[in-house]
Amino acid sequence: MLFVDTPRRPIDMFNPDGTPASCKETLTWHEGSWEQGDVVASMGTAFYEMLYNTLACGKELEVTPQQVRRQIAVIAQCYRQNPRFAAGPIRQTSANSGSHPLVASLLQLV
């Protein structure tokens, strides 16, 4: 767990006046350093090497379509559970039963 020394606190989504609450907790920062090369080149190279190894050598993808579908499903569920924070107006239609348009789009991918 990343914030092991940070105490749990209740999540206040709204201020007393009804406006969205901002983060207010104090986090203990842990600093470190590392050598960083050319990030753009190394990420691009790593992606294409992984893709080549998958297509030409039969190795498995590092991020599978099933993992991406699971991530999209989690994001869609977050929007379903809290549409107040979803981008744009909430439109209820018989097709999406109150889901945000983004949720409907994400669910088509799942």
From TrEMBL:
Query: Which superkingdom is the protein from?
Result: Bacteria
What is the protein name given in its UniProt record? Gfo/Idh/MocA-like oxidoreductase C-terminal domain-containing protein
This protein's species is Paenibacillus hemerocallicola
Phylogenetic classification of the source organism: Bacteria, Bacillati, Bacillota, Bacilli, Bacillales
